[in-house]
Amino acid sequence: MESSQHASLQASELSCFRDERLLFSNLNFSLHAGETLLLEGANGSGKTSLLRILCGFREADAGEIYWCGSKIADSSYYDDMAYVGHADGTKKELTVLENLKFALALGSAGKYDIEQALDKVQLAGFDDNPVHTLSAGQKRRLSLARLLITHNLLWILDEPFTSLDRQGIKLIESLMAEHIEQGGMAVLTSHHDLSMADLNLQRIHLQACQ
Amino acid sequence: MLVVTLFPLAVGAQPNLLRAMAPGVIWVSALLAALLSLDGLFRSDFEDGSLEQMLLSPHALSVLVLGKIIAHWLVTGLPLLLVAPLLAVFLGLPQQAMGTLWLTLILATPLLSLIGAIGVALTVGLRRGGMLLSLLVLPLYVPVLIFASGAVDRAASGLPVGAQLYILLAMLLSALVLVPLPTAAALKMSVN
Fold this sequence. Notes:
By secondary structure, chain A is of the alpha/beta class.
């Protein structure tokens, strides 16, 4: 595990093909503690592919990613990162509490315990509800609660605000701001602009090539 | 179990025929039960994103995979072990073969779960994976079937079954060691 001061994520000369289309090439960026990276671009421009490469689900067709100076495969990357993607990552048949216990078992304990995390995402009292009875917004907040209970420095979020109403969006933005303030980092894609002020925000805009 | 109860009804009241076929019938049903339940092993995890979370976990994927396979066996193989005596009586399997039936079930049902897991891992990302899964897995199941069913057959006739049981044990031990790693790799490919 890394301490937050020295954490850094670097992408060097990344390129990615999908179905013989070049999505992006020679992509470079560098992210340090307390910074946020926002990926913008139209649908199909490669945002999700880039995120999936950052998660290690697929290899980039060229280039490397470095976590704290070493390649992600050789470092404590997976110890220090957490991902919330399109799919919620929760099991519908299990209860809210069971899902979070499972998430905790897959990682290591973080800042908040399960009760506190549920409180923070405004799902307190839903412990024993099976996930399939939750609304879409509640399910999304549950998957984001996972970020709070495990130790992580880097949040990788793919459209985290989908299914959330305005209140939900403000809630998640405040959780993100708290995470960043405490030395964390985040990479996210979002169709809607972040309204958080005082963010060390980098933007990468992916253009769909013809 | 349903399949097994259908056999006496379809074949008619011919105790000798049923008795001779009993090991085979029980074993084919065990096989089909394992095959049909395999899809559940990783598919729901794949679809709701839990598989991705497992891949991102700092814990070794092979260990998680082994855990899932054990869970699968507990849910599919273990009930079969409990029901087997009933089925054997139903088909008229001789008493002396009962012990062997149990042993082959204990040895080979985990084997079916293990072998099946590789197939599931390879096909979980595909839309119509079910057919391909059967095609991949059945040829690997055949040796297990031959040894297990053969052992029970021989036991029914009073012949020694040491060789078959030892081979099943060897297959089980190798599978325990050899299956988790490629399964984890196949899952990574499928998520890609």
